[in-house]
Amino acid sequence: MERIYLDYNATTPVRAEVRDAVMPFLNELFGNPSSRHLEGRQVKTKIEAARAQVAAAIGAEPERVVFNAGATEGNVSVLRGYQVNYKDKKGRNHIIVSGVEHPAVYDTAKKMAGEGYEVTFVPVDGEGNLDMAFLKSAVTERTGLISVMTVNNETGVIYPVKEIAKIAHEKGALFHTDAVQAVGKMPFDVKDIDADFVTISAHKFYAPKGVGAIYIKKGKRLDPLLTGGHQESNRRAGTENVAGMIAMGRALELAMGEMASDRERIGKIRDEFERRILAEVPHTRRNGGENNRLYTTSNISFRFVEGEAVQLKLDHFGIAVSTGSACSSGTLDPSHVIMAICNGDEEEAHSSIRFSFGKYSKMEEVGYVVDRVKEVVAQLRSFSPLYDKFLSSQGK
Amino acid sequence: MERIYLDYNATTPVRAEVRDAVMPFLNELFGNPSSRHLEGRQVKTKIEAARAQVAAAIGAEPERVVFNAGATEGNVSVLRGYQVNYKDKKGRNHIIVSGVEHPAVYDTAKKMAGEGYEVTFVPVDGEGNLDMAFLKSAVTERTGLISVMTVNNETGVIYPVKEIAKIAHEKGALFHTDAVQAVGKMPFDVKDIDADFVTISAHKFYAPKGVGAIYIKKGKRLDPLLTGGHQESNRRAGTENVAGMIAMGRALELAMGEMASDRERIGKIRDEFERRILAEVPHTRRNGGENNRLYTTSNISFRFVEGEAVQLKLDHFGIAVSTGSACSSGTLDPSHVIMAICNGDEEEAHSSIRFSFGKYSKMEEVGYVVDRVKEVVAQLRSFSPLYDKFLSSQGK
Amino acid sequence: MDYTEKVMDHFMNPRNVGKIENADAIAEVGNPSCGDVIKMYLRIQGETIEDIKFQTFGCGAAIAVSSQTTEMVKGKSLKEALDLTRDQVAEELGGLPPIKMHCSNLAADALHQAVKTYMKEHGLS
Amino acid sequence: MDYTEKVMDHFMNPRNVGKIENADAIAEVGNPSCGDVIKMYLRIQGETIEDIKFQTFGCGAAIAVSSQTTEMVKGKSLKEALDLTRDQVAEELGGLPPIKMHCSNLAADALHQAVKTYMKEHGLS
Ligand SMILES: Cc1ncc(COP(=O)(O)O)c(C=O)c1O
Ligand SMILES: Cc1ncc(COP(=O)(O)O)c(C=O)c1O
């Protein structure tokens, strides 16, 4: 049986058109873009075209796009590098990040807190929405950077980045958004948001892993993380991942043309799936408010059973899903995101599963997936001591 | 006519076997290696196999190899991260680097000098050899790191890294070598050298650009540059460049099998080329001693003419070479490497051309290249005011 | 993080799941906030574990470890049950991912706790 | 760093290269350590540049700029030569890479220096 992949938020397959675009760069177009000879110049021209494609997809000027090795590098670059915009560097060492950021922001900010930065984490409510009043009152004249993601990777919750950018700017702070889960999937315009820095990652929109980009607003700077080479206009040293850049440009170009129809089609599948799960599997809870969520994602807690067990059994039935984020799979703790949204109810946090849909998802698969989820959850509950206790407490 | 590529030190084409190895990862093997489902686990297994291939090529245990986005990231990671090995961090903020390092080390070290580190640059002589007495006397109890490349990218000069590692260790300093131009081309063994850190880059040995690795000796650590993900055993966060890693492993595996014969064959071509150039073009100088040099590289100064002009004309005749390093092409200054070796004679430095040979170089091409070099240099000299002055001074 | 075939077998087809009504000994270890709760039910005849069942809330490893543990002590003496170590269980399963060795490998603890309580209550030693 | 077709044409086929024996005016600018030396030789008749030649040590841009400059002033008056700017030369070439605008675009300087010296020596103004 064909497997059913429902982990598009973790990564996506490389689409055929993108693969085709890349092939010449694994063949005859092999020059180093920094080389002045024909082999180099040819490639240079192509990576500049890819830069223009990426820029167009986010409403930026091409020269404001800096390619890198992915959004982890992007996020770290922004957090580590933003201070160069402030003459009095010491005066702006307060950063504000949401409590549901990806580890590349969240853990990096935590580390910075141990290095003399003042870091404020903004909490979310049970639907995953940011406490905006808290955020507003946290901004001071010493705040240098506010970093809030556009779309959460675990829940799909969308954040009011335009409003937050305004709050930041009113106090002279810079605004960064990790737009990894947004770009290529929903309309996103750096100018409309008025973001100072934006990070994106190619492998979330059907291009290969290990390439991404930062948008840096005109007039703003980042102290480069990688030094010792003039590449990317002195903003990111190192021989370019040429094939990756080409792929990223092409993938975004394609994504732009298909965004509206994907949104419609994939959203319907996700909605139908979620409706059925919540209706047919008892003791479930959606993590993240129903609205104000990206159409790709459904994060569900199945009470009394542990997420990994559900995920493993579904895997056995040919269905790929994830517990929290793939990125936290090196630890045993539930992700800080789900913990935040579960209001500290760790049991519910341990019971969460993320289903994320994408280009190759089919409505016809929903029935099979729902049936398997029902079966797996029922089976695991049949010997769950927590479920047993719950039943007893209900007098059953 | 087919072009003749003589810029293998800048970058290499992806070889067919490597391309073949990569293809499945741009197709069905698309999972995120951090994912626990089948799609993820399959890929995880493969990147671990690639790690073992890389490790085998440098005599390391697989778990000591950390993949990254290339040697620029690798070099910066080492320079920025080594202090974590010293309890008294402030006590070991002296670093020693050679005066002929790649900008990723050289410029980064310069930047660190402006940030409170004490940095010593070790000079080279007219043949490109390190002043070992200077180096020895520069090491103190406060020296934390010595970084000397294994092979220079511009001249091919080979450095006595084993000896330098010993000098470092005697004073309790760590030793790093940028082995980008050595690994895959000549025998290289981290244990024999007793290096603490080694950086390598895939695109120098017929794999794609934008992927590399660091070797970190057992018991040694680097404070990670990229944080916020457990990848690479918490040593380098970020979704992996899977295709790149696979390519790198396969390319090194192939390189190991072919190293001896390549060395023999390519070395003969380089030697014949160099012999003829030095014999047939007057007023030339080899940058780098004749022996103790990698068999791939020939760096020649053509007095009275400027390097870029020579390079451009050769490009027009279908021959790709470089002036200094591709990496310094963003500036107009001759590279610090060639300057160092020319003993500050900037005219000679401006006149240097690097010819670097590789797998697809052919002995039959030497004649054509030598003829074109002769023609181009003669033509440019015909209207060089410096040549004119020289002739007058000779009474001609 | 790969599980061995044997872990997967015990996980997919856990042996001895459920409760024993009027069990002679019961013990529960772990707690939901750690992601693992293991409850053991024992029927004891003399010094022999006549029957054993478990309920587990936890990951694949926790379930497999519970199942494997019950198999290893069913029909064995209380003394043998006390001698069984976590490491023996893990070994019998062909190993566990390092990250799972500590947290999810709780079944032996639950077993020991149940047996010890039983022995105390029945004046055994 | 791409050169325009016209730059490449002047670079590959430079016009007016060489020296003029017994030139009426000569000037040299730049120095080898900058990577560019441009030397201009002028033959002047009355107020007209009858002939002009150059020698250049330098990159592609330096050579193209030299060649282009000589073409632009050959047969022109000294005044016109003095009015010619570096930017006009670059523009006539269809532009130069930004990094080359300053360093390699020295030919107009050499020309001006030669013309000014000539005018001083001949009491022109
Ligand atoms: C000696 C040396 N070190 C470092 C680098 C930089 O590595 P990368 O191109 O992977 O950034 C290069 C080549 O570019 C090199 O030749
Ligand atoms: C929201 C978000 N930010 C950052 C990242 C990290 O990006 P990358 O995988 O390119 O390192 C991810 C995904 O892994 C993500 O979902």
Can you write the helix and strand succession of chain A as a string? EHHEHEHEHEHEHEEHHEEHEHHEHH
Strand content of chain C: 15-25%
CATH topology of chain C: Sufe protein. Chain: A
Arrangement of strands in the largest sheet of chain A:
2-8-7-6-5-3-4
- Number of helix segments of chain A? 14
How many DSSP-defined strands of chain A?
Answer: 12
**Overall spatial form of chain C:** globular
Alpha plus pi helix count of chain C: 6
Task: Give me the CATH fold name of the largest domain in chain A.
Answer: Aspartate Aminotransferase, domain 2
Using the 3D structure, state the CATH architecture of the largest domain in chain A: 3-Layer(aba) Sandwich
Q: What is the CATH first-level class name of chain C?
A: Alpha Beta
Low-confidence stretches of chain C: none
Helices and strands of chain C, in order, run as HEEEHHHHH
Helix content of chain C: 40-55%
Which of globular, elongated, flat, extended, rod-shaped describes the shape of chain A? globular
Mean pLDDT of chain A: 95
The CATH architecture of chain C comes to Alpha-Beta Complex
Q: Separation of termini of chain A?
A: 39 Å
Distance between the termini of chain C: 41 Å
In brief:
Chain A is of the alpha/beta class. Chain A has helices at residues 16-22, 38-58, 71-81, 103-113, 132-138, 161-170, 190-193, 231-234, 242-280, 307-316, 336-341, 346-350, 365-382, 385-393, and strands spanning 4-5, 65-68, 94-98, 118-122, 143-147, 174-178, 197-201, 212-216, 284-286, 297-302, 319-320, 352-356. Helix content of chain A is 41%, strand content 13%.
Secondary structure elements and their pairing?
The complex is a heterotetramer, with 2 copies of chain A (396 residues) and 2 copies of chain C (125 residues).
Chain A: E1 4-5, H1 16-22, H2 38-58, E2 65-68, H3 71-81, E3 94-98, H4 103-113, E4 118-122, H5 132-138, E5 143-147, H6 161-170, E6 174-178, H7 190-193, E7 197-201, E8 212-216, H8 231-234, H9 242-280, E9 284-286, E10 297-302, H10 307-316, E11 319-320, H11 336-341, H12 346-350, E12 352-356, H13 365-382, H14 385-393
Parallel strand pairs in A: 1-11, 3-4, 3-5, 5-6, 6-7
Antiparallel strand pairs in A: 2-8, 7-8, 9-10, 10-12
Helix pairs in contact in A: 1-9, 2-9, 3-4, 9-13, 10-13
Chain C: H1 5-12, E1 25-31, E2 36-45, E3 48-57, H2 60-73, H3 78-83, H4 86-92, H5 98-103, H6 107-121
Antiparallel strand pairs in C: 1-2, 2-3
Helix pairs in contact in C: 1-2
Bound molecules: pyridoxal-5'-phosphate (2 copies).
One pyridoxal-5'-phosphate binds next to α3 of chain B.
